[in-house]
Amino acid sequence: MAFYQIWIRSFKDGNGDGIGDLYGVYEKLEYIRSLGVDGIWFSPIYPSPNADFGYDISDYRDIHPDYGDLAQFRKVLARAHELGLKVIMDLVVNHTSDEHPWFQESRKGRDNPYSDYYIWRDTPNNWDSLFEGKAWEYDETRGQYYLHLFAKKQPDLNMDNPKVREEVKGILRFWLDMGVDGFREDVINFISKKEGLPDGLPFLPAINGMPYYKDGPHIHEYMAEFRKVCKEYDCFQLGEGPLTTVQSALKYLTGPERSLDMMFSFDHMMADCFYTEYIHRPFSLPKLKKAFTKWQNALNGKAWNALYLENHDHPRVISRYGSERFWRESGTMLAASYLFQQGTPFIYQGQEIGMTNIRLKSIEQYVDVSTHTNFHRYHLKDSLEKRMERIHHSSRDSSRTPMQWDHTEHAGFSEAEPWFYVNPNYERVNVEEEEKDPWSILNFYRSCLALRKKSKTLLWGSYREFFPGDRQIYMYERAYGKTRYLIVCSFADKPVRVRMPKEYVDRKGKLVLCNYPRGEREELYRAIKRPDGEQGWFLPYEARVYRVSVTT
Ligand code: NOJ
Q1: Judgement on whether residues 105 and 27 belong to the same structural domain of the protein
Q2: Could you tell which of 131, 210, 313, 374 is best to mutate to test the pocket of ligand 1, judged by most ligand atoms within 8 Å of the CB?
């Protein structure tokens, strides 16, 4: 299996209003299928005031009018199924929008049926929110503070209230009855808070309360209740686990209490920063490799990894872990660095064509709530230029620019002025151009997925990393039965010499995939006067996949 993630507002506008929608998705289903994926994950498409672009839901059982309606959703679902694509929805139940009718009722007073749907206190504790200042906001009408771990307009639900859990089950059934195949469960490890909501550590900005709401005391009971409903439909559950550790992820993924099929972990997205963007550092390949290998080893034989490099929360990976100068080379190499690991890959819209970060001139042009908070919260003493550089590198808006379909105006995303800035590189980086080029990033993604699909070794094989300390090369093996694959990825922007592991030196491996066109590769090797080959050199951001048959 492999999944494609759609962040609908920027995917494809089908009704000419400058906003991506389900009409646009319908038009592009064949394209998605052509990548070789087997499913789609929709980031939220429900009604929402968009304080957090859909992750603040005001109605769980409808479609945002910007994106279409339930009839159009059913049409997309049916066509996706015809094409053999599963469809999973985003389940966001740690919080709702403050415009959700439950919250509107809850705030009215302490004695209405919804009064305990949220977490209200007379006196707030010291927790910070992840997105907007303190985690508590005073509500005049109710005369109390409510908890919001994310933006002010995202009040946290009180999952300890059995009625709230019944609501969640009702939402699951609503979409499952319609025929969806599963859910990606937003910040699901945060839904149970420790009784008494104790004060958090004073010195960790943004995440000081985390020890009291991550993997909280009743999390596994609540998850079991939701799992029971999902089991009735045999559906797929994928949890998002911000800052989850291997040990706690295994509790969700294994044993009789297993409540999730897979989990998105975050370790590998911190090879150039710390989650909050509070700490921002140069990219470190050893850090990235360590995170990859930790998860591969820990889950091997016990659970299954959800593999990704980008999504709507992480800026474009070429701009972070690769190089915009070696755009095609690093874009393809990064694909090989994760698509052959053990697990189910997720590809975020635009990643498959190598979209890169946008650089807007002023902070006012950014629309993401956390981008503004980070800008005003951290590193205030730095020059404006430096602070903007951080924003260019880290803003979630960088991955939310309209999808680049062709070289026409607005990148073929819409006939109208798009709701957000199109990256000016669209004339070069777009689907139409890359369809024509057999060596494009787009076609490389297709080749990788096709290779994975036809090989048991790449699907089921064990994982082993070689030379973990190497600062330029990521090398890993997948082994199953008599077949081994060796995947070698150079993260260097210049040619580097590559050692082969002892056991590979004498084996005749077949090069089954490489990200440099053959002629160009030979010419480049000649130009640098270096031999290519098993004991040879790798070009900048070169990636190779070898297949080896083991006879003894
Ligand atoms: C994780 C989602 O991926 C992100 O976009 C959102 O802002 C937070 N959860 C809060 O819902």
Answers
A1: no
A2: 313
